[in-house]
Amino acid sequence: MIRLPAFDYVAPRTVDDAVRNLADRGPDAMLVAGGTDLFPNMKRGQFEPKTLIGLRGIRELAGVSGDARAGLTIGAATTLSAVASHPDVARRYAALATAAGLVSSPQLRNAGTLGGNVCVDTRCNYYNQSYEWRKAVGFCMKKDGDICLVAPGSDRCWAVSSSDTAPVLWALGATARLAGPAGERTIPVSALYQDDGIVYLAKRPDEILTELALPPADGWDSVYLKLRRRGSFDFPVLGVAVAVRREGEIVREARVVLGAVASTPREAPAAATALVGQRLTSETITRAAEAAAGPAKPLDNTDFTHPYRKRLVRVYVARALGRLAGLHAGPAMEVIA
Amino acid sequence: MTKRFTVVGQPLPKIDAWGKVTGDTRYADDLVLPRLAFGKLLRSPHAHARITRIDTTRARALPGVYAVITGADLPRVKFGILPVSQDEEALCTEKVRMVGDAVAAVAAVNEETADRACRLIEVDYAPLPALMSIQESLAHPEVRIHEYGDGPNVHKNVALQFGDVEAAFAAADLVREDVFFYEGNTHLPMEQHAAVAHATPDGKLTLWSSTQTPHYVHRLLAKILEMPAAHIRVIAAAVGGGFGGKLDPFSHEIAACRLSQLIGRPVKIACTREEVFYIHRGRHPVLMWIKTGFTKAGDITGCHLKTWLDGGAYGSYGVASTFYTGVINPVTYKMPVYKFEGARVFTNKPPCGPKRGHGTPQPRFALEVQLDKAAEQLGLDPADMRRRILVEPFTKTANHLTVTTIGLGECIDRVVEASRWRDKAPRYAAAQAEPSKPLWQPRRRRGVGIACSSYMTGAGTAIYWNNMPHSGVVLRADRSGGVTVLCGATDIGQGSDSILAYLVAEVLGLDPKDVHVHPADTSLTPVDLGSYSSRVTLMCGHAAIQAAERLRAVVFKAVAAKLEVDAATLEARERKVGVAHDWDKAVDFARAVELGEAMHGVLAFAGSYAPPKRAGKYKGGGVGPSPCYSYSACVVELSVDEDTGEVELHDVWIAHDIGRALNPLLVEGQVEGSVYMGIGEALMEAQVFRKNVHKAPSMLEYKTPTTLETPEIHTILVETDDPEGPFGAKEAGQGPLLPVMPAIANAIYQAVGVRVDEIPITPEKVLKGLELKRQGKPARVGPDRVPLFTFKEPIVVESAFGAPAEAIAVRPFADSQT
């Protein structure tokens, strides 16, 4: 079998302690909460930390507080199962409950955390492979090499943002709280990412994501749809998060954010513009869906062909909006296990 | 007269069920011996290259490393599972032929050290052009993957003709030519291959391995290691799934043996999941051209099939696989005239071999989809059309195979009825004309599809020519009343050990719990050829029954003397032996054994089985004959999403002619497992390569269904009580896989009018078909050409179609005495 390499493990009890440890140990240290993504990556040699700083023992990092009227705050180390089953999340931020509930499998959702999913490493089927495999194909710039195997002419890495919750948090207008040696700061989730497969987080390496805050839910409805081969445990190869705020039947604000079609979640502003000031009718939905695919730039480095993933943006956005409009009463797209 | 059984036919748990569910079962990787060392193979990163230098100095210098070996440390003999394809080396010496070929091996104090040492081995390669497809290999005869075979990069070229196909086509009302492609896929057993070898100072060697065929491994180890077979002992560890992937001798087994011999410690090599994808021996990618003539009524006048198999880098079972893409087809439907041409091509990919259904799912897909197309053209219901043209029982096929019982008619009737085919088929077909829903609503259309199949119950000939039993059992009765079964068969999860216990218990009137089945061990158990070709229940079953009957005869003789009755009046049941009308006097089985032992000496009896000799008298006639054939009919109901191309399965109804269900629970398990595997092949699985490397050698990215993607499976067992089967039983392990893929393809066509003539049927392909349909073009996705290739002059043999089968053939060993 593939063995997990040896590492030191530090178990801080407070965020401050964790921040200090991270600063002391520098780039050889990595954070671990659920470990559901980190440990497989360590086994395959993508991550080679000398030290892991465990976040599971920090009480202040887990749990949900607040309410839908004032906004909810979710600790970064709250498990995905806990997020998915939290009554306020499920009722008022439905897309987040759906997305958290569609990550991987039940066992991994019991271990994996919201913060871990928000920060999850970008994926690429030239990268998520063993050392021997990558050697046979030729190492890529994300690990051990210097070119991008998906786009050999490109000077950047095109690994894919593969978080289910990131596009949803973005669409919901959530903020992320970061703790670092210089103190704490809060940034919109939309500012947490950048379109680079290697440096995909705008968070500084010495910062720890501590919590995610959702704005008041009033008037907002949201839906998340996920494309993947199997409903049981695959990563997304397209995620569509749609949030609209309606007054009566008229859409006043809208956000459409696409996941897994670039190295960052991608907002589709043209789709949102097509909705604002309109009712969610068959015609407006179709128009918005047509406008949504532009920002999706999938490449051939995940499951399914990339033209297929691009093509399905339109379908998934239409279906997500159809659901928000209550136009569709058919069976759910995804079975939540 | 109806047979009466007490154990047979009962839905009993497997005898190893508790071990499996509690984790007590010890697989090869669970074995720990004192002073155990851990091994690891260094594998080639090149698809095709000459090895110009190997330097192991740095690896050997690493602390904790016991030994590093290369091909130079092994006798220079090539080997292979088939005598005609001796083309493998445990560690490549001159050339590597695929990414994943083993070139060196390390034994060390632990796996981490072995792994580090592998990375310190320096190998220089001179890359050669890599040939990654049938077309590439045929187009580049100047690049030779092997020096042997039937032509440049052609491993095997076969052609057989039974009757005049051209005349048959001339006599047809409809002649269809279709081209199909079936992508390769792999077995994906839960247990990764592992082996522990222990060479002792006396020059003997023991190997525990996750193997389906300890006997062949035993024979080949003697050859490869150049040591007497008598000094080698191969023990089959519990096997966590095989499906044909553990049927060859493998590099890790041989390297573990050699390393252990060198270091004087036991050595374990446990493969990673990625390595299992390179070991492979899975489903061949096959390109097929099939031409069939039909009458207006739907009768087949004749069929001509050409297949091109992508064999990968080595021979493995490929010669047999090549024949199997042709020879089983005539066993299902009346096919008076038949011509088959097949060619297996070497490529620089992991070698293909015998995956469940061995060579037959691909042509089955082609035939059953073509039948569906013909039925539509002829205006016939596809279920009725099939029902009309079934092979007659106890007749011969065009290619001289003997069919005994055939329950396929009942199978079709039962799935048609259970699925409400007659109601749904026309309704769904009509619904195709209904307008689409708007984009924001999932637009799904339903379809039902049907397909049938047949499969062998054990290959009629062994891998190496011999006149010995294919299966042997030694039964030893204990004074405790327990009975021990020694048999070389390996239980790979299919339940063959349980079957042995049931059959012995049935004959001796015991509870299966009283029967101890010893795992395969070449030093203890009589030879069984292995767990392949669905042969174990039938062959070991007969041997076990024979041994148990011999034991019973002696016990009866002793009890008859004691009770002063005629032995012929005795029966064995409820752990007693006695006379039915005077059961109070019946003696306990343990007591009966004591009486028997007192009279006869130690009670140990052998049973032997070899299949009837029915091979057609022509070259190649040895592939295809089987004591009897199982049959399956399958109806699939599914929905196709018109905007995503996704296929959602709702229900699968499958009826299987099992001859007799020795344990219906086990049969249902095999049928459901087959359906599940078939769904994966039909819709998802693909062993495909990019930049000459396997694209997704992991359980996450090599897509296969999970329980959540598996629909409701309605299993119907049809019993035909075959005279060739043990208590009438046929196989269940492979046949039920075969109709699933074409039934799915046919149901997709019925749902949306798209023909995907290529496996797997991915959402992309369905969507492409829908797009073609919208453009008013033929809504077909699949290959449209075949390679320019000259097959051999066919061996022309008269068709034996319809000839009555000789009275049930005499079986060797059936009557011989102990």
Overall description:
- The complex is a heterodimer of chains A (337) and B (818).
- With 337 residues, chain A is an alpha+beta fold.
- Chain A has 2 domains: 8-58, Uridine Diphospho-n-acetylenolpyruvylglucosamine Reductase, domain 2, CATH 3.30.43; 59-119 and 160-324, 2-Layer Sandwich (Uridine Diphospho-n-acetylenolpyruvylglucosamine Reductase, domain 3).
- Chain A contains 12 helices and 12 strands.
- Chain A is globular, with a radius of gyration of 20 Å.
- Mean pLDDT of chain A is 94; it is low at 329-337.
- Chain B is built from 19 helices and 34 strands.
- By secondary structure, chain B is of the alpha+beta class.
- The longest helix of chain B is centred in the last third of the chain and has 28 residues, at 536-563.
- Chain B folds into 3 domains: 28-128 and 187-279, Aldehyde oxidase/xanthine dehydrogenase, a/b hammerhead (Aldehyde Oxidoreductase, domain 3), CATH 3.90.1170; 286-459 and 617-797, Aldehyde oxidase/xanthine dehydrogenase, molybdopterin binding domain (Aldehyde Oxidoreductase, domain 4, 2-Layer Sandwich); 468-609, 2-Layer Sandwich (Aldehyde Oxidoreductase, domain 4), CATH 3.30.365.
- In chain B, 27% of the residues lie in helices and 24% in strands.
- The A-B interface holds A 1-3, 5, 125, 128-130, 132-133, 135-138, 149, 227, 229-234, 282, 285-286, 289, 303-305, 308, 311-312, 314-315, 318-319, 321-322, 325, 327-328, 330-331, 333, 335, 337 and B 29, 43-46, 99, 111-112, 115, 192, 270, 272, 274, 438-442, 643-645, 684, 690-698, 700-701, 703, 705-709, 762-764, 767.
